[in-house]
Amino acid sequence: MSDVQPGNFVGKISSNFIIKTDRKMLLYILGLVALWFVYRWCKELKRVSNKEEKYVYITGCDSGFGNLLARHLDKLGFRVIAACYTEKGEDELKKISSDRLTTTHLDVSNSESVSKAAAAIKTLVGVKGLWAVVNNAGVAVPSGPSDWLTIEDYKSMLTVNLCGVIDVTLSVLPLIKKAKGRVVNVASVFGRISPFGGPYCVSKYGVESFNDSLRLNMAPFGVKVACIEPGFFKTNVTDTVILKNNLQRLWDRLPQDVKDDYGKAFLDQGMKGLDDRFKVFTDSDLMKVVGCMEHAVSAVHPRTRYSPGWDAKFLWLPLSYMPTCISDKLFLKSNPKPQISVL
User: What is the pTM of this model?
Assistant: First the structure.
């Protein structure tokens, strides 16, 4: 007689059936995911027509992402309105662009300057309206531990990074509604997670919230709203010289009791940490971000969010979905500790 018991035999058959079923289910799921990515890729290839009739207003075009985007869209045939903070920025951009590109002076922190630019744009675009505004202008300093800062430090950055975005958008929103166009807001992956103190993350969280509410408000009017959330890229925002000078300036003005709490070693470790982290994380290929901006402006079906940069996709965004207790432990472990730390 066989040593195999009927119960064991049936159990083995059931186990094999379950394993085969699970494998089939997994293959079906992987197949559906692959089909979805192919469908999305094909859908996102379509671009809008009549680019030569579409005006795109970009802020912060003196350098960095804004400057590259203005030149890129100009080459693609769009009518670019490049807003620069300095006269030098305007002159340099004009020299390397076509006659389609026009420049204007803009200080996003000054409502009078914003209104003046909007009035000029209204005259320029006429009855067709404005196809897109790209809110790119922003600053990264002052940044540091919260108790190194004053309310004026917060106000100065929020005025540019958040209120400037809102002011510029509202100033041209009627023109964008007329064209059933686009609003593209440049936030940051640090509008999704806050690994350091100061007003930068606060301002970018605000941009994310404004972007989400505006997207819902404008959908009935045929206006699409997109958010760009870059990781670390090599621009003025991530210039370690500027950031370290900022930290030193904040340290120098601190009351002695606060300096005693932190200790000079905290400052030295913070300076070194900037260099070490930016060497690892900073990407020099700015076209990764500019490509996302261009897609948000020119695609028939733009995404609602873009997260350019390997660090954004594989580090910061996954961390933002983790339980707070885990992300806090990781940040506290990697950050320098004050001299009187209890951790």
Answer: 0.89
What percentage of the chain has pLDDT greater than the value 70? Answer: 94
Whether the CB-CB separation of 179 and 48 falls below 8 Å is answered with: no
Please give the radius of gyration of the chain, using alpha carbons only, rounded to the nearest integer.
Answer: 25
Segment 266-311, tens digit of pLDDT? 999 999 999 888 888 999 999 999 999 999 999 999 999 999 999 9
Tokens of 65: 């992402």
Using pLDDT thresholds of 50, 70 and 90, give the confidence band for residue 1: very low
* Spatial separation of the C-alpha atoms in residues 226 and 213, rounded to whole Å: 11
Those residues with Cβ within 8 angstroms of residue 80's Cβ, 6 or more apart along the chain or in another chain: 55, 56, 58, 70, 73, 74, 97, 100, 101, 102
**Do residues 102 and 82 touch, judged by C-beta distance below 8 A?**
yes
200 is catalytic: yes
H or E element in which residue 303 lies: none
Give the active site residue among 55, 57, 85, 200: 200
Q: What is the pLDDT of residues 15-33, one digit of tens each?
A: 665 666 777 777 778 888 8
CB atoms < 10 A from the CB of 136, how many?
25
Per DSSP, the three-state class of 323 is coil
